[in-house]
Amino acid sequence: MVRHIVFWQLKDELKQSDAQKVIDDLRESFTGLAGRIDGMTHIDFGVNYKEGAYDIALCCEFMSREAEAAYQDNPLHVAVKKKVQAAVKGRTAVDYEF
């Protein structure tokens, strides 16, 4: 099993205007991948409610490294990544087996 965790910083201009709309859209887009990506067993999206370096987070679990790698190029995921790229200024990720 593989866990894929990503943290993002929203662009400053979003924090002052449409942040909630963007967050809601990203949450719906990511959670809409559940059951549609081969090898994905879990997906969860959340908003940081404390001060910190990152504003939103994603946690996914996959059956294998190969399943996680295939997810990266899956057209459904690529479409969501485009939305993310338009909304964020920073990203970090951790992938590990458990």
What layout of secondary structure does this protein have?
Layout: E1 2-10, H1 12-15, H2 19-31, E2 40-47, E3 56-62, H3 65-73, H4 75-87, E4 88-97
Antiparallel strand pairs: 1-3, 1-4, 2-3
Helix pairs in contact: 2-4
What does this structure look like?
With 98 residues, the chain is an alpha+beta fold. The chain has four helices and four strands, in the order βααββααβ. The protein starts with a strand and ends with a strand.
The count of strands amounts to: 4
Mean pLDDT level: 96
Number of helices in the DSSP assignment:
4
Shape designation = globular
In short:
The protein is 40% helix and 35% strand.
Can you give keywords for this protein?
98 residues; alpha+beta; 35% strand; globular
